[in-house]
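ingest -> validate -> predict -> emit
validate: passed (alphabet ok, no gaps, 484 aa)
predict: started
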Amino acid sequence: MCEVCRKVAAGFAAGCGHYTCPVTVPTPSSAPVGLPVDAVIDRLGLGAFQWRLLAICGLTWAADAMEVLLMSFALPGVSAAFGLTPGSADTKLLLTATFAGMLVGAVVWGWLADRVGRRAVFLTTVTLGVLFGLLGAAAPTLGWLVAARFLTGLAIGGTLPVDYAMMAEFIPTAWRGRFLVYLESFWAVGTVLVAALAWWVSTAFAPELGWRYLLAFAALPGLIGLLARLGIPDSPRSLLARGDTSGARAALARVAQSNRVPLPAEPLAGPVTGPAVSAAALFRGVLGRRTAWLGVVWFTLSLGYYGIFTWLPSVLRAQGLDLGEVYRTTLLLALAQVPGYLLAAWLVERVGRRATLAGFLLVGAASAYLFLLAGTPGAVLGTSMLLSAALLGAWGALYAYTPELFPTAVRATGMGVMSSLARVASVVSPSVGALLVTGQLAVALTVFAACFAVGAAAAWAVGVETRGRQLPGDGPDARPEVNA
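emit:
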């Protein structure tokens, strides 16, 4: 019985023993002693550590964007080198190889990150991504290139979910949504870099040779990111979930040192004793319904986004633009993503994650039809830029929203599951997107607009707003009902 209820009971029942306290007080065996990790992170505030982490994760995120989008820029050169024709089975296989690897990697690496820690996967995936990226540049045959792209996707498929779990667990509550969108905005940086690099390579080398330099140069940012990552500690939340309280405190001490603030003297609360949260919990009860709705959003957004932008350089090429003009136009579309991200970063903390995500998806659906109706080169460029800004704003909101919906013990696994659903869509999207280059533009854009509309409805159906809330942890506080 709590102290307040004890006094009430004494006044009404004079200690008769028939009063039952409505407040459940945790016993010492189950109650955490000390400060929770979120409270410590919030006290340490936003400082140099978080900005450095953003820069490091952002660099690798940009490198991953380059790898994901690489083949759409390299395709003209690869086609010239290996005699591929637009829309052929070999072309579709090449474009889907990276996504197929990411499909496998997202689940495997996400699961490993929840068991062995974020940092180990954090470093391993980047190392493998660089090695396999360089392997693809030296491919003597198309089969070799397809295998190298699959392996590259396998590696970077783990970078995506793990980076977001790591970032979410180091950022103070008040800033977490914006920082997760800021991290996603580095995708635009990678898109700009790969478009600019492809433009330069197209002017310096013949297409049959230039794609090899394009693949080799695109692997270098990942190498720089790997070296920068060596100084980042593991997530204190992940360490606590695995029973390493001293390691978690050491990680927080590094945050305090970087931010030049004192680490609270109170002991760090260990994990709350309660039923273990396993990966199977992602598919049961309230959390299972949340996973299902989120999965619809990830699948539909990915299908539409990659279906359009994987084939866009080939569509522009088919309309008579030379490679330089194609890459310049693609560069403008990449730059249009920046205001989409900035607006999303502002909106997620003003109107919330769910409304921002649904709103951008609806704008994306409308933009797809505006693109279809555009009749002049200026209108085509303008509607394409609006579509690019809307879809990347949606991606920013989705990446901010998703890690906040899963408890610590399965956060990276949950992100991996979502990323794998996106990769399923990415594997399918080249076949649907091929309609763009075979004269069935209206059919393709109708499919993609419908995807964005369904995604908006699914985002709203999640039914949870996470703005201003601390991350769900482990044990009893991991129950989705508590955070619904």
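Residues 1-32, 474-484 have pLDDT under 50 and may be disordered.
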